[in-house]
Amino acid sequence: MSDAERASAPLLDIAGHRATIRLNRPKHLNRLQADDLETLQKLFDRIEADSAIRVLVLTGTGRAFSAGYDLNSVAERATSALEQNSAGSAFEVIVNRLEDLAVPTICRLNGGVYGGATDLALACDFRIGVDTAEMFMPAARLGLHYYRSGIARYVSRLGADNAKKLFLTAQKIAAPEMLAIGYLTAMVPMEALDQEVDKLATILAGNAPVAMAGMKRAINEFARGKLDEAAADRRHRDSMRGAEIREGIKAFAEKRPPRF
Known about the structure:
By secondary structure, this protein is an alpha/beta fold. The chain has two domains: 3-205, 2-enoyl-CoA Hydratase, Chain A, domain 1 (Alpha-Beta Complex), CATH 3.90.226; 207-253. Helices cover 53% and strands 16% of the residues. The protein has 14 helices and ten strands. The longest helix is centred in the C-terminal third of the chain and has 17 residues, at 190-206. 31% of the residues are buried.
């Protein structure tokens, strides 16, 4: 990998219980390349392997969050025999991996979000965006039938009518509508973005990590209509006799924040 390519790779910063991944190709609106997907996979693995990390923030460098996956790469994949015979693209695998991370995730939408990046952001648990943000899903203009799990995510998060509007019209929508349809968790001016993200990240980092991971998994499974009932029941029973609930009850009685 050249120095220029290294400079464009997603960056990881860890501070206390918080990890931040920053997409880092601002000259191209943080457009994602195949190498970026490999980097993100490694970063996700590293984050899940570090028990000290309690929350992940995903953001972009510059004036946009991300322009999505490189269209030239999409075209190359479309003509590859391997891609035609595979169950899912490398991009789809990365987005699903992000959604399934055990730690809670926040997308810090520092600007516009386009194409596949709209699904990357949607795979995060929370999306806090600036009031100048916009989103655009151009699949219908490109002649692309979007991958199955991405459509499912749109429908489960935003509802069928909003998914149809975004996919079938391929029209841009601005931040206020992104908030109204539930794409954004919160909308703030740029000068308040970091404060709002920090506030939510601090809350999440202070809560019980094992309980959160289990409930996040159950919520995602409910949304997909594929709940592993036995596993969810087992996690519930285990939590009733675990260290986290003992500390939580003790902290409540002592009127102090819990220390998980």
